[in-house]
Design a protein that fits this description.
mainly beta; Phage tail protein beta-alpha-beta fold; 2 domains; 22-stranded antiparallel β-barrel; single chain; Maltoporin, Chain A; 46 strands
């Protein structure tokens, strides 16, 4: 990292006298005439703001408060006015744009930009979430203008909470819960009670609007500028996700260089002995700062959340972008290598067991000797061009290579006392992915009705390879116990390279129109996406216990089908700060390839590719912006098919899972310096048409009846620069299986932290300390039907960042 830092320092032209990035400062500006509000901003920040009195006459500024950068506060004050600004250092000049003012009057916050390459939506009061985010083909929208449940987390929240991966971020919403714990083979979660899986080689998380281009597990926050969460099916917005999740979708917006130079080094520690070093550098250059470079490099290693384990990571990300008058372009290069030793693993139950044993310590790994290595390389690019002031086109594409190599445990499930047997296997995968989208957006009027008409297309292609080696003959499985695990026996003698196991092509075409009526007080969104699924499966190398490689390369299944997913969304604003909304949307999911039963025996249709299936969502809600606090409430229902085994041992989609829920959320700033993020989720889950009807009416496994979040972040008044924060994450009891025979008790987890901002030798420094799972709570997580994993125990994290 040292040599790399020196090289980048030279490349970026770093000098000791370089200006630091804007610091976050406490802003408190009440609603008042815009001119007066701008004067207040000049008093509270270093900005020198120049404007003509007639330019701001007649405009009223909304209240702005919280920990914000000066420029973010300025953006909030100018939002919706049509007034432009140009910045040179701390000097800011305001100007009027007739075209921008006309479009702002006609369409409000509905803009041509897709939100990926243009300016990000400003932070809301408190700075933890943004006022809007990208919605794929629907463009960048303010949360008050979209007929869906969304939340957009800022990079400030990620770093203040010392989030390590994506999973640490999205659990801030009570409708999202992790089903695996840190240090495992992957990080999976559920949204609205439906799984979002990482299924090796396939990721249902998009980056800059494209699926399949980031590692399917343990995605580090160091590449993230925003984390955008959409609750409910997102097929219309970005096309079908690779794994076809229906509960919601997550999009990552990568980092870009700001106008102010950035040079930041962060050193971190995580118990027991995991160390991290990160370098973050950004520069803009050229006329009007049109070109930008942003580099992030990180190295991590050492024992962390599993005993005698090692969680290592090397990551490099480079973002390049250009911002012209009509052209916007970006490119990202991301390389990530993970090596985990003594991986936190999942475990099943032995046949006939109806009680889970008490959960063990959070640092116990059930299978000492496991190892996982993962390597991912990604390149992606996006281009946007304004053909006219009201017509914009875009094209984006990316390519990723992924490789996983695993020492993978097997054996029998545990009994009620935690006893089981363990053996050792190899399970390796490779994948190559190409992902792209293109579209065009036009703004126009038909009489008094405004339109945002969009046409789009997406293309996703992936080939995945698999190889599997069984435990060797002559080396028996070892007896073990979850409280005192025995080391894994020797691995198989034969290990072969992965060969093609599946090919997937997802192609879609979409059209949407957002109509605005009555000066944008009514917004109606109509749209549909036609999706084509083309999937082939092949036999892959399987090494038996004698070391014999089975036949591979034969096609075992194939499916091609098309379907249309419609969307209708409505927003009504009876007053300016209140949005009533409703939507109906359908999601489309790719059918799975039927594998083996849990006991290793085949189904009657093993190797077949199941047909795609649809899910349906109905939702209605209300959003209220109180100035510095936004509250939301939503009622929703999602129904989707799920696979069951019939009397002929055929595995197919014939059952149904219906989840109904109520969501309540609040975020913002209660008072100056006191930030809030809170919510509650209530879900009624029901199974229908199950195998033989034996579980009809039961709750689906892993779906809590209720979940609650409460987070507070407080700038203390007695020590300048000292802030304290805490989170309570409550999850009610849930069932371990669809038979509802085994129940997991509810859990309440507390996370606390503190940070201190100061200046040392003229450099801005931030010290942070965090404790996750403060009470060292032991509990089980339901990783999948009939599998569980122990949650990580109390974890200490320390870090120090310096801007130079």
């Amino acid at each position: 990292m040292t040599a790399l830092a020196l090289a980048l320092t030279a490349a970026f032209g770093v000098a000791p006298t370089a200006r630091a990035q804007d610091n976050t400062v406490s802003i408190s500006i009440a609603a008042q005439p815009l001119g007066d509000a701008l004067l207040k901003l000049g008093e509270q920040t270093p900005l020198q703001i120049f404007f003509a009195p007639d330019l701001v006459a007649g405009h009223t500024a909304r209240p702005v408060s919280g920990a914000l950068t000066p420029e973010a506060a300025l953006q909030q004050l100018l939002q919706g006015t049509g007034i432009q600004y140009a910045r040179n250092g701390n000097n800011v000049t305001l100007s009027s744009s007739a075209q921008a003012a006309a479009e702002a009057t006609r369409l409000g916050t509905v803009t041509v930009s897709g939100g990926i390459l243009g300016d990000l939506s400003p932070a809301y009061a408190g700075g933890q979430v943004a006022t809007g985010g990208s919605m794929g083909i629907l463009g960048a929208e303010n949360v008050m203008d979209t007929p869906f449940s969304t939340v957009n987390y800022t990079s400030d929240l990620l770093f203040e909470q010392q989030a390590r991966t994506l999973a640490d971020v999205i659990v801030n919403d009570p409708s999202v819960r992790s089903t695996t714990s840190t240090g495992g083979f992957g990080e999976d979660f559920v949204i609205r009670g439906f799984p979002v899986s990482s299924n090796y080689g396939l990721s249902d998380v998009s980056v800059n609007g494209l699926y399949g281009l980031v590692a399917p597990s343990r995605l580090p926050v160091q590449i993230m500028e925003r984390v955008e969460l959409l609750k409910g099916p997102g097929t219309l917005m970005r096309g079908m996700s690779p794994n076809g999740n229906v509960g919601g979708s997550v999009n990552i917006v990568t980092k870009r260089a700001d106008d102010e130079p950035l040079n930041r080094v962060t050193l971190g520690y995580m118990s027991e002995a995991n160390l991290t070093a990160q370098l973050d550098m950004g520069r803009r250059f050229g006329e009007d700062n049109a070109w930008g470079l942003r580099f992030n490099g990180m190295k991590r290693g050492g024992e962390a959340t599993t005993k005698d384990g090692d969680q290592g990571l090397e990551m490099m990300a480079l973002g390049v972008d250009y911002r012209g008058d009509r052209v916007r372009w970006s490119m990202d290069l991301i390389h990530q290598e993970d090596v985990l030793k003594n991986v936190r693993s999942q475990i099943g139950l032995a046949a006939g067991v109806v009680d889970l044993p008490s959960p063990p310590d959070g640092d116990i790994n059930f299978y000492p000797g496991t190892r996982l290595s993962q390597r991912d390389s990604t390149i992606m690019s996006r281009l946007e061009y304004d053909f006219t002031d009201s017509v914009t086109g875009h094209i984006g594409m990316g390519y990723r290579e992924g490789k996983n190599r695993q020492l993978f445990p097997g054996g029998t499930g545990m009994d009620a006392q935690g006893n089981f047997t363990a053996n050792n296997r190899f399970y390796d995968t490779d994948s190559e992915t190409f992902s792209g989208d293109a579209g065009i957006v036009a703004l126009f009027d038909t009489g008094a009705i405004g339109h945002r008409l969009a046409l789009g297309a997406t293309y996703f292609a992936q080939e995945q390879g698999i190889s599997y080696s069984n435990a060797p003959a002559g080396i028996p499985a070892v007896p073990s116990n979850i409280y005192d695990p025995a080391p894994l026996p020797s691995a198989p003698f034969v290990r072969v390279d992965p060969e093609r196991a599946s090919k997937t092509h997802l192609i879609s075409f979409a059209i949407t129109d957002t109509l605005s009526f009555a000066q944008d007080s009514v917004l109606l969104t109509l749209g549909a996406r036609r999706q084509t699924v083309d999937t082939d499966s092949y036999s892959y190398p399987m090494v038996d216990a004698a070391g014999v490689v089975g036949a591979y390369g034969n096609k075992t299944g194939s499916y091609r089908a098309s379907a249309i997913s419609p969307v209708v969304g409505l927003v009504i604003k009876p007053v300016e700060n209140v949005s009533l909304y409703a939507n109906y949307t359908e999601g489309l999911s790719k059918g799975m390839t039927v594998g083996l039963q849990r006991n290793g025996n085949p189904y009657a249709n093993t190797g077949a590719v199941l047909k795609p299936y649809k899910s349906k969502q109905y939702e209605a809600g209300i959003k209220v912006d109180w100035g510095t606090i936004t509250t939301t409430a939503a009622l929703w229902q999602i129904e989707r098919p799920f696979a069951v085994v019939d009397a002929s041992n055929v595995y197919d989609y014939s059952g149904k899972q219906r989840n109904r829920g109520l969501e309540l959320n609040a975020y913002g700033e209660i008072q100056r310096g006191l930030r809030l993020m809170a919510g509650a989720s209530f879900i009624d889950s029901k199974l229908r048409n199950t195998q033989g009807g034996t579980t009809d009416g039961n709750r689906s496994y892993g779906v809590p009846a209720s979940a609650y979040n409460l987070g507070l972040d407080w700038d203390t008044p007695w020590v300048n620069g000292l802030s304290l924060d805490g989170r309570m994450i409550r999850t009610s009891s849930m069932y371990f299986d669809n038979a509802n025979q085994i129940s997991l008790p509810g859990t309440t987890i507390f996370n606390v932290g503190a940070r201190y901002r100061t200046e040392i030798a003229g450099k801005d420094v931030v010290f942070r300390a965090t404790i996750d799972n403060l009470t060292d709570k032991r509990y089980w997580l339901v990783a999948s039907n009939a599998y569980a994993t122990n949650a990580a125990g109390r974890t200490f994290m320390l870090s120090a960042s310096v801007d130079f």
